[in-house]
Amino acid sequence: MTRITQTRKSISVTDTATWVAMYRAIESDRPDALFHDPYARKLAGEEGEELLRRMPRARQYAGPMIVRTAAIDNLIKEVIQRDRIDLVVNLAAGLDARPYRMELPQNLQWVEVDYPRMIEEKSKALAGETPHCKLERFGIDLADPDSRRALLQRVGAMGTKGLVISEGLLVYLSAEQVSELAQDLAAQPTFRFWITDIAAPLILKIMKRTWSRRFTADSATFQFAPKEGAAFFTRYGWQLECYHSTFLDLFRLHREPSMAWLWRLFYPRWASQEVNRRSGPMTGTLLLFR
């Protein structure tokens, strides 16, 4: 976990793990919390509070992160139970604590992958905690194709039916990098399901306008927002099973932003398009299968 200081004005992509952990901590404090993450505040630390203070409109945009976490939690539980998943691989796991906070089968093999420094610091922070399933962590740079493919082959052999999670990862990659990742995952017979999030081009523009200048010059910032939505993945063998629209979930779960009155003006038109959407611009969470 990359620590933030008050004197540093810019952040790196890895800092977003701290940012999102603070969102989980804030949600967990609510009496009507959609989930409870008792480890989030510890993992985020004081740096998480400082980051939310410095990032423009950070608290205003908490809702999309919260409903994304809730959607992925529910999809994980559903797929594990329904399809008897025995392997979960969380790419760019960041400060995620699902193996500790979720009720999971004891014999489930959970694998976390992230930068070596992130893995090292997270392991230290959670050293005294016990996960609910078998847990292993690997520190590599997922942008390195050779290292990534070697690791995916290694962890793919750790189970018989696998689920991959890439929460908050793809938006920082180029379309070419996402294509390579989709192919690498499809090359492993064990990986049958893939949970990921996706942003529409319009949302990407808003994110860039709001936050891109805050990232360090060497950070990738925001890149991936395919116009065809989930259809982007079909050429690599991945089909859409389920789409959770962030927009609809914000209203359904009562996590609307502060300008919700303005959003509601467009709600009927947007909702009718989102309910049955199978392609085109998407902002939300995807469950893909092959």
How many alpha or pi helices? 10
Radius of gyration: 18 Å
Query: Roughly what fraction of the amino acids lie in strands?
Result: 5-15%
How helix-rich are the residues, as a percent range?
A: 40-55%
Total DSSP E strands: 7
Class of secondary structure makeup:
alpha/beta
For this structure, the quaternary state is single chain
Based on the coordinates given, report the CATH architecture of one domain.
3-Layer(aba) Sandwich
Cross-sheet strand order for the largest sheet: 3-2-1-4-5-7-6
Task: State the end-to-end CA separation.
Answer: 33 Å
Shape: globular
CATH topology of one domain: Rossmann fold
Largest sheet: 7 strands, mixed
Description:
It is a single chain. With 290 residues, this protein is an alpha/beta fold. It has a domain at 61-197 and 226-289: Vaccinia Virus protein VP39 (Rossmann fold, 3-Layer(aba) Sandwich), CATH 3.40.50.150. Helices cover 42% and strands 15% of the residues. It has ten helices and seven strands. The chain has helices at 16-28, 40-54, 62-83, 98-101, 116-125, 145-156, 175-186, 201-211, 246-252, 260-275, and strands at 87-91, 109-114, 134-139, 162-166, 191-198, 239-245, 284-289. Strands 3-2-1-4-5-7-6 form a seven-stranded mixed sheet, with helices on both faces. Helix 1 packs across helix 2 (40-54) and helix 3 (62-83) packs across helix 9 (246-252). The two termini are 33 Å apart. The relative contact order is 0.14.
